[in-house]
Amino acid sequence: MAGCARMTTSIQHATLEFENEIAARPHAVFSAYADVGQRIGWGTPSDTATLIYDAADFREGGTDRFRCGPKDDPSIHGTTQYLAIAEDRHIVSIETLATTGQTLAVALNTIMFLPAASGTRLVVTVQVASFAGKGMIEGYEQGHRTCLANLASLLSWQPAPDKT
User: Fold this and answer.
1) Contact (CB, 8 A) for 77 and 99
2) What is the pTM of this model?
3) Sorting pLDDT into bands at 50, 70 and 90, what band is 156?
4) Which DSSP state fits 162?
5) CATH number of this structure's domain 13-156
6) b (16+ CB within 10 A) / e for 89-123
């Protein structure tokens, strides 16, 4: 990130922790992260936002490149670098968000998929440093809450039994 302009001289930081019980086995929840098509389905926090992957390489050492923001202007560019992946157990990654050559935020994401009686206990820890002020951290928090609720809803949905 050398050479990237910073929006502010002060850095805001936070550790955000989320826990969800999801009525699906760890493999299904892990797969929803691993498969970019599924990730797009639950990873957009609102009907007015979009998430576009320009490259997806979900493996240790791999990098995703994406754009996000309002549907009419997805001007935030992001990269996710995968540091550690253990199928059905955990994902550790670093995410960088930037716009017009300015770094907005950098986050260390740790996602754990723990077996639970209900299916999976999903534990997500986001350690974020914001160069764009406190609003960026609030956006991370609200975005994660909404997206994780979307994920739980998607995976908890069961088709109606076939009546034939």
Assistant:
1) yes
2) 0.88
3) confident
4) P
5) 3.30.530.20
6) eebbbebbbbeeeebbbbbebbbbbeeeeebbbbe
pLDDT by residue (tens digit) across 34-77? Answer: 999 999 999 998 899 999 999 999 999 999 999 999 999 999 99
Find tokens 């502010």 and name the residue.
8
Give the three-class secondary structure for 35: coil
Mean pLDDT score, 21-32? 96
**Locate tokens 């909404």: which residue?**
146
Residue pair 69/45 in contact (Cβ under 8 Å)? The answer is no
Both tokens assigned to 42:
């639950």
Fill in the amino acid letter for 10: S
| Of 68, 75, 144, 132, the residue nearest 104 (C-alpha) | 132
Instruction: Count how many residues are written for the chain.
Output: 164
* Nearby residues of 73 by Cβ (< 8 Å), 6 or more positions away: none
- The pair phi, psi for residue 148, each rounded to 5°, is -70, -35
Residue 125, phi then psi, degrees to nearest 5: -120, 125
pLDDT reported for residue 101: 84
- What's the whole-number mean pLDDT along residues 108-137? 97
Q: What is the pLDDT of residue 66?
A: 98
Q: Where are the domains of the chain?
A: 13-156
